[in-house]
Every structure is written in structure tokens, then in C-alpha cells.
Write a structure and sequence with these properties.
Layout: H1 2-32, H2 38-73, H3 88-97, E1 142-145, E2 150-156, E3 180-186, E4 188-197, H4 198-203, H5 208-232, E5 237-241, H6 246-255, E6 263-267, H7 268-275, E7 286-287, E8 296-298, E9 301-306, H8 308-311, E10 318-322, H9 324-327, E11 328-341, E12 347-360, E13 366-372
Parallel strand pairs: 1-11, 5-13, 6-9
Antiparallel strand pairs: 2-3, 4-12, 6-10, 7-8, 8-9, 10-13, 11-12
Length: 380
């Protein structure tokens, strides 16, 4: 009797794995196809959820099969062994780590050999994330949600006309029409996948998938930062020089319209230059925040610091000064999505996808600065 149950359960598991493999392959094909419609992507996401449920069922059936097989090997007079319980570590990882399992060759990715820092030998410890700058420039620009792959975004220019003086009960004169400038945009797709071996997931002392997920989010921030910084570097260039702040003052007071909400995005080297500027009394001009969460300011203008390579080469001193929300528009189509996609290895794929477009909106809203040692005329 028990032999028949084991035989039927093995057949059931084989059928489930075949069905799940086909559904996962169809889902992956849709998600990796750039031409997939929103409806197809939504359907694929639903199918991926069904695949996860199937994996849970397959796992439960395999656990049941192991118990039956153990019972079949147990002598009649002996107590049947209890089912293997899931460890606390497995419980924590269950939502992400119990997904697609398949057999095959090992390929490049995250494997046991290159995540040794998180896999314990005789003790358990948690690795620390590397301390790196993660300034998100997308938080400083203008956003709008795109519902199509391309289009135009209207920018209302600053009004320069005035109202007319009229006599009492005279007919209202016509006001000047608002001046719009249409900015063309086209969505770009950015995506990639990180393979992770199941051995690494199972043997890691920490939630390895959580660490990799955070890394994928950091890569998304790096991607948007590169797109935004490329736009910032295309603005009119100016130089500031020496130990004087006069060049920056000229840009703030004269070159930029007073209506702009000005900010400074400074590379680390440029920030170091700002941090050394002093007034005639020897007081530093860069003011540190008084309250937590407040920005550093120069001449009342908030300063955001990014790594040197965001605005140029390592060691170069660059900055952008102006109104970021007027200067740059970001069209959001799809934020980052992390999906566990089927693979022909004994492992999992962490897939990250983001779709957006960054364009220059107001070309007069800012300047790209380079700090040099040679003295030059202010603002030139």
C-alpha cells in the first residue's frame, strides 16, 4: 500500500515540475521581451505568482515523499521518524529563497566560492554593507508618470507680460497668452539579472537574497544618477577660480533668474573647495546644518555632495548650480521590479527592471562649473 502511495506521489511531483517549468519559461519570455504590452506584463506577473505557489506545493509534496520513503525503510516494530522541520534560517528566507530550482551546469554568478564572507565555517556572523555614497539625484528633479513609451511634456515659461491699465467700466483687454515649450521624451528600458546559486543561499549565515536585492536597488540609483549627471554636464559651462567666492556669487546673483530655486550639486573635490572658502573675517562660508536632516548651505543655497566620478573624472572639481526641478524632467514608466525568474542552473535569477527617461527642460536654469586654480573674471 505504501509503495503505491510513493509511486503516485513521485508521478504527481514529476507532472507538477513539468507544468511549472513550462509556465515559468512562458513568463520569462514575456518579461524579457521589450515589445511586451502592459497587459502581457501584468499577466506574466500573475503567472509568476502562480509559479511561486506551485513551488510551495512541490516542496510540500517532496517533504511528504521523503517522510513516506523514510517510513518504508523503517522496520515494523520501530517508531516512524518525524518529518524534517524547517530551520529558522529557512523560515526567514522562505518568501524569496524558495523559488525556482532546476539542475544543470554551474555558470558565472554568485556562487559558494565568491560569497565566502557570508558562509560560516564554525561560527555565524553578519557581513556589513560597504560604506559608499548613495546620493539619489532623482529626488531633486521634476517627475511625472508616463503612460506611453514616448510623448511631449509641456513646460510653462516664466510670465514676463504685465496687466494693462484701464478706465472704469472699460472692456477688459486681452491678457498675453501663456508661453509653453514642449519637451520631447522617449522611455528607455534598463534591466539586468544576477544569478545566485542555491548552495550560496542555503549555506549563507545571513539573508543573501536580501543583500543582493539591496545591491540591485543601489544599481538602479546609480543608473538614474548617470542619466541625470549626463544632462547636468550638458548645461552652459563656467569656471570659478582661486580662493574667492565671487564667481559663485555672480552666478547666483546675476546669471541666474532670481525666481529660480537654486541648489548646488557638488563633487567631493568641489565640496572640499567650498569647505575652504572664508569671508574677510576668516569665517568659513560653508554652513553646517543646525538640525538633523537639514542640508549644508553656501550663501543660503543648499549643497548636495556626489562622488567625483558622477560629474567628471576622479579628482576633478565640478559642480552644477541652478534650479534642478526646472532644469531636468524625469519621466517614470516603471520603477525597479525584482523577480525570481526560471533558470537552467541549480540557482535563481534576481532580475531588475526600470524604465524612465531624463531630459533637459529649461536650458537657462543652471550652469556646469569647473573649479580651477587660475584666476579668472567672476562668472566667466
Amino acid at each position: 500500500m505504501l509503495t503505491e502511495i510513493i509511486k503516485e506521489l513521485r508521478k504527481k511531483i514529476a507532472d507538477q515540475e513539468e507544468t511549472r517549468s513550462k509556465k515559468a519559461e512562458e513568463t520569462r519570455s514575456i518579461l524579457e521581451n521589450k515589445e511586451s504590452t502592459d497587459e502581457e506584463i501584468a499577466s506574466a506577473n500573475k503567472a509568476a505568482s502562480e509559479v511561486r505557489k506551485m513551488d510551495d506545493q512541490i516542496k510540500a509534496d517532496k517533504e511528504k515523499l521523503r517522510n513516506y520513503e523514510a517510513t518504508a525503510k523503517t522496520p515494523d516494530n520501530h517508531k516512524e521518524p518525524e518529518g524534517r522541520k524547517m530551520s529558522a534560517e529557512d523560515e526567514e528566507k522562505r518568501s524569496l529563497n524558495e523559488f525556482l530550482h532546476s539542475k544543470g551546469e554551474t555558470r558565472d554568478g554568485i556562487t559558494s566560492t565568491n560569497v565566502g564572507a557570508t558562509i560560516p565555517e564554525s561560527i555565524v556572523y553578519s557581513p556589513e554593507n560597504e560604506v559608499k555614497s548613495a546620493t539619489d539625484l532623482s529626488q531633486l528633479v521634476q517627475h511625472f508618470t508616463a503612460t506611453t513609451a514616448s510623448g511631449e511634456y509641456p513646460i510653462l515659461k516664466r510670465a514676463t507680460a504685465t496687466l494693462n491699465t484701464v478706465e472704469e467700466l472699460a472692456k477688459n483687454p486681452e491678457l498675453a497668452k501663456p508661453d509653453f515649450e514642449n519637451i520631447s521624451w522617449k522611455i528607455n528600458t534598463y534591466r539586468g539579472a544576477i544569478p545566485i546559486s542555491n548552495e550560496s543561499i542555503q549555506d549563507s549565515a545571513v539573508d543573501l537574497t536580501g543583500l543582493v536585492s539591496r545591491n540591485a536597488q543601489e544599481q538602479k540609483i546609480n543608473t538614474t544618477n548617470v542619466a541625470i549627471s549626463t544632462i547636468l554636464k550638458s548645461f552652459e559651462a563656467k569656471t570659478v577660480a582661486g580662493e574667492s567666492v565671487d564667481g559663485i556669487k555672480h552666478i547666483l546673483n546675476v546669471d541666474l533668474d532670481p525666481a529660480y530655486n537654486k541648489v548646488i550639486v557638488a563633487s567631493q573635490s568641489f565640496y572640499n573647495y567650498l569647505d575652504t572658502l572664508k569671508d574677510k573675517n576668516g569665517q568659513y562660508l560653508l554652513h553646517q546644518p543646525i538640525a538633523d536632516g537639514s542640508p549644508v548651505t553656501l550663501l543660503g543655497v543648499p549643497v548636495t555632495v556626489v562622488e567625483d566620478t558622477a560629474l567628471g573624472k576622479d579628482g576633478e572639481s565640478h559642480a552644477w548650480i541652478g534650479d534642478l526641478k526646472r532644469a531636468v524632467v524625469m519621466a517614470d514608466r516603471l520603477d525597479i521590479q525584482v523577480r525570481w525568474v526560471d533558470n537552467d542552473i541549480y540557482g535563481q535569477y534576481l532580475q531588475a527592471v526600470t524604465r524612465f527617461c531624463v531630459v533637459k527642460a529649461d536650458k537657462n536654469a543652471g550652469y556646469f562649473l569647473t573649479q580651477t586654480d587660475a584666476a579668472k573674471a567672476p562668472g566667466k
